[in-house]
Amino acid sequence: DIRDFYGRLAEDYAAVLSGERDVLFKMKELWYYFQCHFPGCEKELKKIKKAQKLSDYRAAVQAMFASGRFVEDGFRNPAP
Predict the structure, then answer these.
(1) With bands split at pLDDT 50, 70 and 90, how would you rate the model's confidence at 67?
(2) pTM of whole model > 0.90?
(3) Which residue among 17, 31, 47, 75 is least enclosed by CB atoms within 10 Å?
């Protein structure tokens, strides 16, 4: 599950990087590539980008997944 992957990745980054800020930069960078899987979630994505603390980041990610707008193949255009 993608949600579990992102959670574990953030935890692993926190274990090897020094400070929340470094973890946030790494995780936010991944959302640049992952955002295509959440069409119509611009507000949630903006909250992720603006997060200054891991707790805010986690809440924004939770809201993103709770939106129910995840599409598995976000790179493919929907059929007409």
Answers:
(1) confident
(2) no
(3) 75
Q: Mind listing the pLDDT tens digit for each residue in 34-62?
A: 888 888 888 889 999 999 999 999 999 88
C-alpha–C-alpha distance, residues 63 and 67, integer Å: 6
Per residue, the 3-state secondary structure of 2-71, as one string, reads: HHHHHHHHHHHHHHHCCCHHHHHHHHHHHHHHHHHHCCCCHHHHHHHHHCCCHHHHHHHHHHHHHCCCCC
CA–CA dist 22, 66 (Å, integer): 26
Residue for token pair 């574990």: 8
How much is the average pLDDT of 57-71? Answer: 86
